[in-house]
Task: inverse folding
């Protein structure tokens, strides 16, 4: 069996937001689309951060005003689509990340989440990720 790569598990139709997007809009979008992580990109689709459902909900407990810029995680790891899936898994485990933005040629190409791993394992019972 060949080694799995990030592109084999990632979600390529990823929703992203800009840093100036309102927190209330992001919360509504996450609820509507049933997602927990959203990459934050600039005008060139370069990843500048990630906002999680937890970030949004913690802020929403106190107020609905503000922007993604106020709550997003700035220092994040990214991964390439051709990287080995075990490298992505190790980064996620070591840093306790729920997702990794996937970047190709400097731009957002997808997202790899914990759910992508679970989805793969459910579809391929007994199969190893390596």
Result:
């Amino acid at each position: 069996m060949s080694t799995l790569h990030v592109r084999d598990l990632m979600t390529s139709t990823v929703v992203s937001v800009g840093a100036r997007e309102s927190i209330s809009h992001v919360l509504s979008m996450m609820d509507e689309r049933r997602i927990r992580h959203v990459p934050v990109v600039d005008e060139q689709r370069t990843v500048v951060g990630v906002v999680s459902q937890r970030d949004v909900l913690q802020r929403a407990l106190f107020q609905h005003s503000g922007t993604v810029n106020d709550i997003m995680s700035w220092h994040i790891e990214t991964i390439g689509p051709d990287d080995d899936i075990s490298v992505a898994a190790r980064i996620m485990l070591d840093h306790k990340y729920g997702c990794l933005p996937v970047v190709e040629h400097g731009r957002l190409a997808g997202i790899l989440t914990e759910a992508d791993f679970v989805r793969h394992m459910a579809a391929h019972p007994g199969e190893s990720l390596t």
